[in-house]
Structures are given as structure tokens and as C-alpha cells.
Amino acid sequence: MSTQLSEQSYEMEADPDVYKTLLESTRAIPWKIDWKTLRFTYIGPQIESLLGWQRDSWRSVDDWAERMHPDDRKWVVDFCVSQSQEGSDHEADYRALKSDGSYLWIRDVVHVLRNEQGEVDALIGFMFDIDERKKVEQERDCLRQELEELSYKDCLTGVANRRMLDQVLEQEWMDARRNCQPLSLVIIDIDYFKQYNDSFGHFKGDECLRQVASLLADSACRARDVVARFGGEEFVLVLPQTDAHAALTVAERCFAALQDANIPHPASPVSSQLTLSCGVATCLPNHRNSLDDFLEQADKALYKAKDGSRNCIVVAEN
């Protein structure tokens, strides 16, 4: 009995039609390329149902490269060629062009065959349809990015939160120190915001905070400038590569924008509309000063404005 099974197994191994049937019954697409001519010597019939191209249209590696998304083509071709030249098995994910003009994510798994002299003789491999898997991965990555962005945003106003502010300040301080460039801070407090809430209610107060945050973000118009909610009704503008004069200009622009918005605040002792108190500080970071000292300098300027007439800007003394 065992002898009969052995003979049947040998017959299967020796029959190329068996291998062909097995290969062509899988969902993966088998293929083979002659290394010297870089032409396909075989590609499975599954290619027609997957990508729509006729089997006989896959003549050389040029057809393979041309039927690839332009954004993927260069790195995939360069990578696969270099790995093949080194005789290393490899795999690559890319978007393959379908005959209808759409794209499908493919994973190409490549095995390098050598001749008796150890030279690369042929490449054989399988193309796998990984389109659904890629879509799931991309959706997961988008969700992760959204969650990460939310973790750095103030949920009420949409500007940066305290966590993001701390990281930005640390980074900009180090950059300013390394490049010998000025760094400026503008700390802003909404005047008599408690009275605003008492007059209009917290729902209207939240709307007011969102409006002020938007005005501040528009006033700090450079891409690298950061507007963050420091807490409650306080906001901070981080202004890299900004000297004292330019920082004062930004603060004045914030005041002008709020004045133009003309948000009523009848309970305010200083004005019939919403106003701000503002502290401005500028520093050229070096080994003799610290970020904490800089923050304290800006904070003292703010409280000097609040202890005075409010509705004003105080620039910290260097």
C-alpha cells in the first residue's frame, strides 16, 4: 500500500500539468521572468479577471512597470531591480493599473532563481490582491491621525491645546537658541469673561471663545505661528523668528480684529464690547536664560495689563 502511494506521489511530482493546474487554481497570480531578456515566460490566467489585461499583453518588465501607479513606479522598479541584481528574495506593495483605468493594490512576492554558476537566471513570484487590506489600513491610519490631531486640539475652540502648546514652546525655544533668532510670546486674556458668562450664559460664552480663537488664528497668519488655548479665557500666540516690534504688531492686529467683530459686552466696566488684555514678551534664547523665565516674563506683562486699565497691551521689559 505504501509503495503504491509513493508511486502516485512521484507521478504527481513529475507531471508539469499537475503543477500548472495547482498554480492556476489559486487566487494568487503566478509569473516567471527570464533575467537575461527581462521577458515574461509565464503569467497565470488569473491576471485577466483581476486586472483585465490579456495574458499575452504581459510581454516584458516594461509592461509591468507601465501598468503601475506613477507615484509608485520609480521606487518599486528601483527596489525590485536592485534586490534582484543582488539575488535577494523580496516583496513590494504597489497600485497596479487595471484595464478600465482604475487601480488595485498588489503585493508582489519575488523569488530569485540562480543557475549552476550562482548567477541570477530567472525571477518567479506571485501577485496577491491586497486591495481590501490596504483600504482597511488606510482607514485605520486616517482614524489614528484624526485621534492624534484631536489629542492636540482644544475640543471647544479648535486651536492647539495646552499639551500641544508645551511641545511647541519647547521645540521653538530650542530652534531659536540654536539659530540665534528671536522668539516672541503674546498672552491674551478676555476682559471680564466671567461677567460675560453671567450675562449671556455658558452656551453663549463658549460661542464667544470660539469666535475669539478664530480671530486670533487669523491674526497670527504665518504657517509656523501657533495659537493655543492656555486655559479658561486665556490664549497664547507663539511667534517664532519674530522680534519685539513685529510681535507688538501682531498683538495690535488681534485687538483691531476683535474691535471690528464688535461683540457686545454690556457687563464690562471698560467697554460696551468685548475687549482683551495682552502681555507681549520677546527673547533671544541663550545659555543664560530659560523657557520658564521667558514664560514668567510674558505672564507678568499680562497681569500688569490686567491690574491696570485692561483693554491694553503691555510689552515686557528685557
From TrEMBL:
Residues 90-142 form the PAC domain. It catalyses: 2 GTP = 3',3'-c-di-GMP + 2 diphosphate. It comes from the Bacteria. Residues 181-318 form the GGDEF domain. Residues 15-88 form the PAS domain. Pfam families: GGDEF, PAS_3. Its EC number is 2.7.7.65. This is diguanylate cyclase.
